[in-house]
Write a structure and sequence with these properties.
Elements: E1 6-7, H1 8-14, H2 20-28, E2 32-34, E3 37-38, E4 45-46, E5 52-54, H3 56-63, E6 67-72, E7 116-117, E8 126-132, H4 135-142, E9 150-157, H5 162-169, E10 173-174, E11 177-178, E12 183-188, E13 191-196, H6 203-210, E14 214-223, E15 226-227, E16 236-238
Helix pairs in contact: 1-2
Length: 245
């Protein structure tokens, strides 16, 4: 007989309740019930039809977690510091908060704890970056099944035949794997607009190289339904309660 049980933390992540890491934290604290019974043992397996409830303490903790939008400048890495370059999170401080941010949230240094990038943006690229304490948002943007669109303005040098523009839309492979279909079109004489729903390392730059183009500028302007808008470079704002990816 096939075993249909799965780890409680994995099931909670699948249901969008939290990330697996958050689930393990809540289970250890006794904040998770399955069919009314408190589960406090990590690694517990359950059936898909069993009912999961989380305690108010977990809900309150989750509600306090923040998500920020940053317009990353060139010269900062997305994650951990590397090769002498600082991570983009160092830009998150009271004096760099966008003055026009309408979120009714006060900055608190504790918001920097566990604040992590939900997706990469290369050191030589600019634009919209998401930093979050919320595992649900991280899973939505960078989880295995994520299909959230990301839109870029890409300045290029070189000539592009019509057939190669079609290949940019669909027909290119990287590292032996076929890329998912993209939407790519000319924005003006030297700038392309890319819309992707996957994020391979340096994907756009490598795609352009395959069709004889050199990228000289790359800016991410949208993630899902959230736009970069007028957010100044090097500044940040909170994701508002009425916004979603």
């Amino acid at each position: 007989m096939t075993d249909t049980t799965l780890r409680l933390s994995k099931r909670m992540s699948e249901l969008g309740l939290c990330s697996r890491r958050e689930a393990d934290e809540w289970i250890a604290k006794g904040w998770v019930r399955v069919d009314g019974q408190v589960i406090s043992e990590l690694g517990t397996k359950i059936r898909p039809d069993q009912k999961i409830m989380i305690e108010r303490d977990a809900q309150a903790q989750q509600a306090q977690r923040v998500t920020l939008l940053l317009n990353k400048p060139i010269g900062y890495v997305s994650g951990q510091a590397e090769d002498g370059y600082e991570p983009a999170v160092v830009l998150v401080k009271p004096e760099t908060r966008w003055r026009e941010d309408r979120a009714a949230i006060r900055f608190d240094p504790r918001q920097l704890r566990g604040l992590a990038p939900a997706g990469r943006l290369d050191i030589d690229s600019t634009g919209l970056m998401v930093l979050t304490q919320d595992g649900r948002i991280a899973k939505q943007l960078i989880g295995e099944d994520s299909a959230v669109e990301k839109e870029y303005l890409v300045r290029v040098q070189g000539t592009l035949a019509a057939a190669d523009l079609k290949r940019l839309n669909h027909g290119l492979s990287l590292d032996g794997q076929m890329l998912k279909p993209a939407s790519v079109w000319w924005q003006n004489d030297n700038q392309l607009r890319f819309v992707l729903n996957q994020g391979r390392k340096r994907q756009i730059r490598r795609m352009c190289e395959l069709v004889g183009l050199k990228v000289v500028g790359l800016k991410r302007v949208r993630i899902g339904r959230v736009m970069l808008g007028d957010l100044p470079i090097g500044q940040w704002r909170y994701l508002h309660p009425d916004e979603g990816f």
